[in-house]
Design brief:
By secondary structure, the protein is of the alpha+beta class. 29% of the residues lie in helices and 28% in strands. The chain has helices spanning 6-10, 13-16, 21-29, 50-57, 61-65, 81-85, 142-161, 166-175, and strands spanning 32-33, 39-47, 68-76, 94-101, 104-108, 110-111, 118-119, 124-128, 136-141, 198-200, 206-208, 215-220, 225-229. The strands form 4 sheets. The chain has a 5-stranded antiparallel sheet with strand order 1-2-3-4-5. The longest helix is centred in the middle third of the chain and has 20 residues, at 142-161.
Length: 231
Amino acid sequence: FEKKSLSTMAQDPNAEKEVPKNILEMINKIPLEDEDENALKVSSIRYLEDDRIKIYGVLNESILKGEHVLAVECLPKDADEAKQKDDDDDTTLQEKVIVISNNEVDIIELEDKITMEDLSPSKLIEYTFYENGPWFLAPMSQLSLEGYRKMKFKAWKEMIENPTCEAAFKRLLKIGLITNMFDNVAFPSPENEKADWIVKDDHGKDVTIPRPVKKLRAWNCNKRCYKNVQA
């Protein structure tokens, strides 16, 4: 899969800023756990990249307004850190997004709408409707996406075979076969584009037309870059 290069990520001025010593000490005193409540140890602390602050901040205001917005990479308490660094595909490394403002610490988590789990923003899928962005954060992880995908295509087939109105049917035919993910709740359009994907049925009721995403991606903690995910 294609990736945003490490050199490109390294050029982010926010990620290159030095984290103050007192902030490092605060982070290292926080007891951190994974989703299964297993203890974690801190492997690395840096400022979160500006691009990701903007994307994550849409769903969490404190990320946008925080004094210190940090990417804290962690490993299981008993993990062999040296071995992990030699394995780019190792999945034990994970990232916590932590915001510190006025000496108050906030470990940022967002809900996976499929599993109802609270996850770090970097574990959620990002999507775009265009070739080169902009990118938005979806409320589901890559694991949840795979199970959800099958259900959505059944829903699309049902809309084609049993259309609610002529206008919707014509729009579906115009779009053609949908092979990419779509969902107006999980992958909503920007506010200024939502009306373009709504038609009126024979009773004047709004019907939302499926809008397939163009691309999906997920954050790779080991390489500190994005990896493409099948859309």
